[in-house]
Amino acid sequence: VQLQASGGGSVQAGGSLRLSCAASGSDSGIGVWAWFRQAPGKPREFVARISQTGVTAYANSVRGRFAIARDDADHTTYLQMNTLKPEDTAIYYCKLGNAFWGQGTEVTVSS
To answer: Which tens digit of pLDDT belongs to each residue from 21-41?
Structure first.
């Protein structure tokens, strides 16, 4: 399985971005989808996840601002990010199941 993340960019504080991550290969898209992020000089941290039944979970720092979704027909997960803050600046990584990671997409939020 290969994961391709996209949608990162530079926005001003208060803006929005939508990240996407598409899976390809055998059994693609089957499993729990999750997003993590890594800011410069900091460890990678959990952002959000969505189960195969649609149950979601969020880090406290993004709850109420971010929304994760999945489209199993397209083997894709999305992360809608609203009311972005400078502290959201990081490289965002998607993850499928326990083993598959995307290459990361960079998000920069300026004040």
So the answer is: 999 987 666 799 999 999 999
User: How many other C-beta atoms lie within 10 A of the C-beta of residue 6?
Assistant: 14
Q: Is 99 helix (H, G, I), strand (E, B) or coil?
A: coil
Q: Is 62 exposed, middle or buried (0-12, 13-18, 19+ CB in 10 A)?
A: buried
Q: How many H helices and E strands in the chain?
A: 0, 11
- The two tokens of residue 98 are 């326990």
Closest C-alpha among 10, 47, 33, 44 to residue 98? 33
- Helix, strand, coil percent values for the chain (each to nearest 5): 5, 55, 45
Distance CA 102, CA 111 (A): 28
